[in-house]
Amino acid sequence: MGENLEFKLAEALFAADVEAASSVFEGEPNLASNRIGSVRGAAAFAQAVKDWPASFKVAVGEKPKLLHETVIDNLSTAEFTVRVQGPLGSVDLPVAIIGERADSGLIKEARVYYFEKPITGQIGSRLSSFPRQASDRVGQAEDMPGINAEYFRAISKWDIEKTMAVFGRQAYVDIGVKHLDTPEKIRALYLAMFGIEFQLIFKTLAFDGKTMILEWELAGEHRESGLAAYQADEEGKIGGIRMYDVFDPDMVPALADA
Asked: Which segments of 56-210 does DSSP mark as H helices, in order?
């Protein structure tokens, strides 16, 4: 698939470069994010790109920094940080862009995921840009490959010991702007998340043998959506999880200093 066009798109968006941002798409641009909703068509896209840095509270000239990239079949994902100047001060905000590729290799549709709070001071939400389909169903552990099935089975049962057992010795979880890299912090996060009733519809699930990319939306009327990357370690355990959704780790007292 060659060049990571999703990161090229990120660089163009934060530079407010309409021509460069448009060049990664096949046909008219198709982009969805928290800040702008779904944008289709050249004119609407051009305006969104011009407004992009200011809407993120990103200073002129501030460039995103690529951290991870994943290519799976006709999907490609870029995960990066960009420095925002919002109500929480100067923060390196994690962002993910996932692109669906055309046969030409160009992007047909791109979707952007990130944690809203560093920009606005509020939790916010990201409504799904996927159309509802008759085939939509709640995702099951059996839908997931390898260790990810064990992970999903454990969290769906709110079983903290089995959840912790799927993580490798040097595992981490990135959520919001928190980097949790000790068993104590990871345990505190999941104990806080357990007890929250929700069901997920799996919209995109792709696996390259090491990293699984999952785009989901909440079942029910409130169609909030998110993205997570699950990366295996050398022993086949989960080595890292990177979540791009609305759960606020600041609400967990044990993570106050994380």
From this structure: 117-120, 147-156, 160-165, 183-193
